[in-house]
Design goal:
Layout (H helix, E strand, L loop, with lengths): L2 H20 L4 H6 L1 H10 L15 E4 L5 H10 L6 H5 L29 H20 L11 E6 L6 H13 L4 E7 L2 E2 L2 E2 L8 H7 L3 E5 L5 H11 L6 E6 L21 H10 L10 H31 L1 H10 L13 H4 L3 E2 H15 L5 E3 L3 H4 L18 E3 L4 H15 L3 E6 L7 H10 L3 E6 L17 H6 L5 E3 L4 H14 L3 E4 L4 E2 L14 E5 L4 E5 L3 H14 L4 E5 L3 H5 L3 H8 L4 E5 L16 E3 L10 H8 L3 H12 L1
Parallel strand pairs: 1-2, 2-3, 3-7, 6-7, 9-10, 9-11, 11-12, 12-14, 13-14, 17-18, 17-19, 19-20
Antiparallel strand pairs: 4-5, 8-15, 16-18
Helix pairs in contact: 1-4, 1-10, 1-11, 3-9, 6-7, 6-16, 7-16, 11-12, 16-17, 20-24
C-alpha cells in the first residue's frame, strides 16, 4: 500500500487500540474519519510545534468530540504533545487524554467539545475573531493574521439548532476562512440519519450562502486533501461533505453498533488483519518519518512568518506596535471611570451598563460583543464602535440575530481566539436558551460576560413569559460562574472590577427600571456581600438588586417601631462565598433572625437560613400588569415585608 494509506491505517489502529485498552470510547467515527483529519494535518494545518498558543496558528475545532481518540492519535503522530504513554492512559483520571477534548488539558485542543453543535458555533466565533484581527493589522504582502479555522463535525452536530444558527450567521458574514469538515457517515446512535432527518444538507448550506464541496469517497486521502485545498480559495465559508463509512474496515462497518463501543481484544486482532497490518503495535518508523516532514515544513513556515513579521515591523512600525499592544494584557481601573455625582444618579441597570461598556471598548482594544437582536432594549451596544459585518470587519458591535443559543457559543469561540473578555446580551428570561454555552464558558474558564437585562417581574406588562423567576437560581447553580445582581450604578461598577480581575465567566442581572443610589461610599462591595445600613439586633435583611432599596425602606419603617434592623447587600453570592470564614460570619451573624428579600425562587439562599428565618421571594409565574400591581401581587411592598418580619419576630 502507498505511504499515505499506510499512515491512515496505522492511525486507525492506534485510535482503535487506545479505545480497546480503555474499554471505553467511540470507535466508529474515530476510524471512519481518519482519512479526513490525516489529510488536514498532513497538508494544510499550520501549527507551531514549539508553541501551541502561537497567535497566527490555524485553529481546529473537533465539534464531534467523541472522536477524541483519533484526535489524540494525530497529535501523537505529528509530535504535538501527546506521547505513547498518554495514549495508554486514554480516558484515565488525571490524564491529558480525557474522553472528550478539554481546553487547557491537552495542547492544541482549542476548545472543550462534547455537547454536539457547540464546537461548530465556537468555530464561527474563532473565524469572526480572525477576520477582526486580520482586518485591523494585515497589509498588502504582509497578512500576518491569515489563519484558517477548521471544524470537524458529524451528522449529529448539524442536527443541533445551535450549529445551524451559527452557520446561518457565518454565511451572512462571509467568513471565508472558516472550513467545515463534515463527516457524513449517515449514522447516529439510534441508526440511520433518515429516521429523523432527510434534508439536503448541501442545498441547505448553499441557501445559507456557503460554498459547498462534495467528496463522494471520503476514505480517499487524495480527494480529501484536494477538497480542502479548493475550500481555502473560497470567498465564502465552506462546508466539505465527506461521504465516509462509520467503523471503516471493522466487522460493524456502516452500523450504529460501532458508534460508542470499543472493539474487543479479539476484534482488534481481526481488524489488524483486515487492514493488512497483523503485527501492528505502534506507529512504524516509516510512518513517523513521513509525518515528521510536515512538522519540519511547519517549522519552515514559522520561520517564514517570523521573517515576514520582521519586515512588517520595519515597514509598518506603528501597526506592529499596535499589534503587540493589541495581543498584550490591558489593565483598567473601572472605579475611575465615573465621578461621584454620576454614580449617584438614578439610572436603570441596563443604561448604567451601557455607559460602562462604552468606556471599556475605548480602553480595551480586543473588547467586543453584541446582542440577540435586542440592542435598543438591553442597551449592550456602543454607538461609536461600529457594526461588525461582511463589509466592516473592524466593527465592535456584533448583531447575532435572534439566536441566543448560538450567540453564547460563538462568544466562547470569539473569546478563545482573542484571548480576552467579550460580551453578549439578551433578556434574562431568555438566559435559559443559553445555559449550554454558559456551562461551557464556566467549564473552560473563558471570560465571556453575559449581560441579562429585564432581570425580574418588574418588566410589567410584557407578562409572565418575560418575567424572571427561576433564572437567577439556574445561573447560580453553574460552578465557576459569578452572577452579579447589582443594587445600583456604583455596585455595578464594583462588579465589573471583580469580573475583570478574575477573568472568568460572569452573568450580570440588570434592571430595566431605574435604580436609586444606595451604595455610594459603602465598603467591601467587591467582597460580594456587605453590611450596608443599620445595626445588628432583631433582624438582618439580605437583599440583592432592586430589592436592596426596598430593604432600606423596610429598615427605616422597622426603626420607627423600635426594631433593630440591618440591611446587607449581596451583589454576588459566589464572590461572597470565597471570602474568609471570619468575614462571612461578620456579615451573616449577629441578629436574632435573617430575612432574604429577592425577586427569585433561588433556593441557594437557604444555606444561610434556618427554621427561624424567612425567605421572601417569588414562587409563581406573574402576569401582565403594572409594576406597582405586581409588587402588591408578589408582596414586595414596604407594608407587606414589614408585616412578615413582625410576624417572624413574635
Amino acid at each position: 500500500m502507498n505511504i499515505n494509506q499506510k499512515c491512515i491505517n496505522e492511525l486507525r489502529l492506534t485510535a482503535a487500540g487506545a479505545i480497546t485498552n480503555a474499554k471505553s470510547g467511540h470507535t466508529g467515527s474515530s476510524v471512519g474519519a481518519a482519512p479526513i483529519l490525516f489529510a488536514l494535518f498532513k497538508d494544510h494545518y499550520f501549527f507551531n510545534p514549539n508553541d501551541s498558543k502561537f497567535f497566527a496558528r490555524d485553529r481546529l475545532v473537533v465539534s464531534a468530540g467523541h472522536i477524541s481518540a483519533l484526535y489524540y492519535s494525530l497529535l501523537n503522530l505529528f509530535n504535538m504533545g501527546v506521547s505513547d504513554e498518554d495514549l495508554a492512559k486514554f480516558r484515565k483520571y488525571g490524564s491529558i487524554t480525557p474522553g472528550h477534548p478539554e481546553f487547557n488539558v491537552t495542547k492544541f485542543v482549542e476548545t472543550s467539545t462534547g455537547p454536539l453543535g457547540q464546537g461548530v458555533a465556537n468555530a464561527v466565533g474563532m473565524a469572526i475573531g480572525q477576520s477582526m484581527v486580520g482586518a485591523r493589522f494585515n497589509v498588502q504582502k504582509a497578512n500576518i493574521i491569515d489563519n484558517y479555522t477548521y471544524c470537524y463535525c458529524g451528522d449529529g452536530c448539524l442536527q443541533e439548532g445551535v450549529a445551524m444558527e451559527a452557520c446561518s450567521l457565518a454565511g451572512t458574514l462571509k467568513l471565508n476562512k472558516l472550513i467545515l469538515l463534515y463527516d457524513a457517515n449517515n449514522i447516529t446512535i439510534d441508526g440511520k440519519v433518515s429516521i429523523a432527518n432527510t434534508e439536503d444538507v448541501a442545498k441547505k448550506f448553499s441557501a445559507m450562502k456557503w460554498n459547498v464541496i462534495k467528496v463522494k469517497n471520503g476514505n480517499s486521502y487524495f480527494w480529501n486533501t484536494r477538497a480542502i485545498a479548493r475550500a481555502k480559495k473560497s470567498n465564502k465559508p465552506t462546508i466539505i461533505i465527506f461521504n465516509t463509512t462509520i467503523g471503516y474496515g471493522t466487522g460493524y462497518a456502516g452500523s450504529e453498533k460501532i458508534h460508542g463501543v470499543p472493539l474487543s481484544d479479539k476484534e482488534l486482532i481481526e481488524y489488524k488483519n483486515d487492514l493488512l497490518m497483523p503485527n501492528f503495535t505502534k506507529y512504524t518508523k516509516e510512518v513517523k518519518d513521513y509525518c515528521n516532514r510536515t512538522v519540519r515544513m511547519n517549522k519552515i513556515l514559522m520561520e517564514k512568518w517570523k521573517r515576514m513579521f520582521c519586515i512588517y515591523e520595519q515597514t509598518h512600525p506603528d501597526l506592529s506596535r499596535q499589534f503587540e499592544s493589541y495581543i498584550s494584557e490591558h489593565e483598567v481601573d473601572v472605579l475611575k471611570f465615573f465621578k461621584p455625582d454620576v454614580l449617584q444618579e438614578e439610572i436603570s441597570g441596563r443604561n448604567a451598563n451601557q455607559l460602562i461598556l462604552k468606556e471599556l471598548i475605548s480602553k480595551l482594544p480586543r473588547f467586543v460583543g453584541g446582542t440577540a437582536d435586542l440592542a435598543s432594549s438591553v442597551k449592550a451596544y456602543v454607538k461609536d464602535a461600529g457594526d461588525f459585518s461582511s463589509t466592516n470587519r473592524r466593527g465592535r458591535n456584533i448583531h447575532f440575530g435572534i439566536r441566543e443559543h448560538a450567540m453564547g457559543a460563538i462568544c466562547n469561540g470569539l473569546s478563545l481566539y482573542l484571548e480576552n473578555p467579550v460580551f453578549c446580551s439578551t433578556f434574562m428570561a431568555f438566559s435559559n436558551y443559553m445555559l449550554p454555552p454558559i456551562r461551557m464558558s464556566a467549564m473552560m474558564n473563558v471570560p465571556v460576560m453575559y449581560m441579562f437585562s429585564h432581570d425580574s417581574y418588574k418588566v410589567g406588562q410584557d407578562g409572565p413569559t418575560h418575567q424572571c423567576v427561576e433564572q437567577l437560581g439556574q445561573l447560580r447553580l453553574i460552578p465557576n460562574l459569578n452572577v452579579f445582581r447589582p443594587a445600583d450604578f456604583n455596585e455595578l461598577l464594583h462588579c465589573y472590577k471583580v469580573a475583570l480581575a478574575n477573568e472568568s465567566p460572569c452573568a450580570f442581572a440588570l434592571t430595566r427600571q431605574n435604580l436609586i443610589n444606595v451604595s455610594y461610599g459603602a465598603k467591601n462591595i467587591t467582597k460580594g456581600g456587605y453590611s450596608l445600613f443599620g445595626n445588628k439586633g432583631d433582624v438582618s435583611i439580605f437583599a440583592t438588586g432592586s430589592e436592596v432599596a426596598l430593604a432600606l425602606q423596610v429598615a427605616e419603617e422597622l426603626k420607627q417601631q423600635n426594631i433593630k434592623c440591618e440591611v446587607c447587600s449581596f451583589p454576588c453570592l459566589e464572590v461572597f462565598n470565597k471570602q474568609t470564614e471570619a468575614y462571612k460570619k461578620s456579615v451573616l451573624d449577629g441578629s436574632k433572625h435573617r430575612v432574604v428579600l429577592e425577586a427569585s425562587n433561588d433556593t441557594s439562599w437557604y444555606k444561610y437560613l434556618d427554621q427561624n428565618d424567612l425567605f421572601i421571594g417569588v414562587e409563581n409565574f406573574g402576569s401582565s400588569a403594572s409594576i406597582s400591581d405586581l409588587d402588591r401581587h408578589y408582596g414586595f411592598t414596604v407594608q407587606s415585608v414589614v408585616k412578615k418580619i413582625k410576624n417572624l419576630l413574635k
